[in-house]
Amino acid sequence: MAKVVTIGEPMIMFVAQTEGPLKDVAAYDRFIAGAEINVSIGVKRLGHDMTYITQVGNDPFGAYIKEFIAAEKINTDQVFTSESFPTGFQLKAKDQENDPEVVYFRKGSAASHLGDAPTPTIDFSEVDLLHVTGIFMALNENTYAYVKQLIADAKQAGALVTFDPNLRPTLWPDEATMVARINEMAALADYVLPGLSEGQRLTGKETKEEIADFYLGQGSQGVIIKLGPAGAYVKVKTAAGLVEEVIPGFKLKEVVDTVGAGDGFAVGVITGLLEGLEWPAILKRANAIGAIQVSHISDNENLPTPQRLAEFIAAYEGSGE
Prior knowledge:
Blueprint: E1 3-7, E2 11-19, E3 28-33, H1 35-45, E4 49-57, H2 60-71, E5 79-82, E6 89-94, E7 102-105, E8 129-133, H3 141-156, E9 160-164, H4 175-188, E10 191-192, H5 196-203, H6 208-218, E11 222-226, E12 232-238, E13 241-247, H7 261-274, H8 279-293, H9 306-318
Parallel strand pairs: 1-4, 1-8, 2-6, 4-5, 8-9, 9-10, 10-11
Antiparallel strand pairs: 2-3, 6-7, 11-12, 12-13
């Protein structure tokens, strides 16, 4: 069982029960959202030890999140409670045709204040991998510094670092700052996981090969690019030289909700790396979990166990798709 650490902000997510603009919605279903908590759940369900660093408010939302994390058997010793700041939440529209409208209520949240005081330290001596995204680091200067220090500590101890840009432009003061800081953090990571459009926006390059070369040139060991339904591409430095692969995705008859697909993809990459899989197998797993994710409205409820993942791949391949 490998040990993984991540840091992020979990939020209560209210999903509209009916389609249409959020201003017209009268009833919602409650879930929990957050890219890093999605990854934590997925990694844990695939059999690895998971520690999630965060802070929630001393309120009903925070209490529910803490119970949820514990129920998923994610380590809670780095889940802190603020007496001064509330737990963030979001509203999410129901839209089966496009990316749904999402409105955040997270400014001044408990998680955004996690880096204010002297922060708790993590002993990375027994940690195999640190996963970070571009979301938590974007909340303020303190969360940015906290993430950067975590990466430095992890690398000094010999842990792998994976980085998903997970762009949230509304969290940044401007485009230039977002691009500069995301690319700065990507240069510190061993593996960078942008989507194709993210990579184009961040690097100014057009093709997947050019994007990969940009990050490899910054010092990353490997770049894994999400290509949506087309699958995924990897270019990675190995002892035998550069390895380059494109693995097709899983074509689905129906897409329910695209939110969370990238987090599922990251779960596949992280667990594949930890288990020593070859790159075609890693990308196949990542593509499969991403496909499973888009077939369910929740961001994380459908994340698979090993058995569920194997059954999905077998059923798909048996169907002749």
